[in-house]
Amino acid sequence: MMILIFLVIGVILSTTASFIFGVPWLMPILGAAVPYPIFFLQVRRQQYKSAFWWMLLWGVLQSIAVIVATAIAPETAAKLILRGQSYTTEMLHWIRTGEGMEGSLNLFLPDHLLHYGIFCILCVVTISSMALIFGTWMLNYMNFYVAELVKVSAKPWLAAILGWYPWSLMRIIGFIATGVALAALGLNLVTRIRGEVPKSPFPKTYMLIGIGFVIADIVVKAVLAPIWQKLLLSALG
Description:
Elements: H1 2-21, H2 26-33, H3 36-44, H4 48-72, H5 74-80, H6 84-97, H7 105-126, H8 129-152, H9 156-162, H10 166-193, H11 204-236
Helix pairs in contact: 1-2, 1-4, 2-8, 3-4, 3-10, 4-5, 4-8, 4-10, 6-8, 7-8, 7-10, 7-11, 8-9, 9-11, 10-11
């Protein structure tokens, strides 16, 4: 219960502080700073399941906070959330025309693999701290888009339901599971550098879950994106 209270209050304060300070690069740092101590402690204790679920809960709370903040102060959010406006423009163009990266495997696959590769490297090198900042940045601009989509849609209730794509949810789960596994690997590498023998085995199950969900993200997106585009178009009006 204490962790839940900490996450709720932390997400509210970090989002509020970000909007008050108005410094774009500071927002993902403040956002990531909230769950990281909990995540690090759980991984260090080999409580991988707890680390995974607390991070997933934080992702939900962070998303709600950013969507609400964007709805309340859209102009501030547009200036503050890095890539928020450009991503929204890109997505709205895809919804209206069917053209763009979102609906083409050849276009979105290299981008997905690049993001996942960067995330994996940051997980190992920084014990997932910089990876979490990177992930928070992506999460924030997705939520900015969802808030803007709901605002401009003729059927906001439908846009709210459809705004978070199923493949994006799979990607988040995949990234979190990967972050758990590679943070543990990073800790083991630090232990070896110190000349000690790691006490915890590499949690390969979470690595496999991570890779599995990232692959599922790609497959589901390739199959469902054309269908989802038509559904979103009906919501947009």
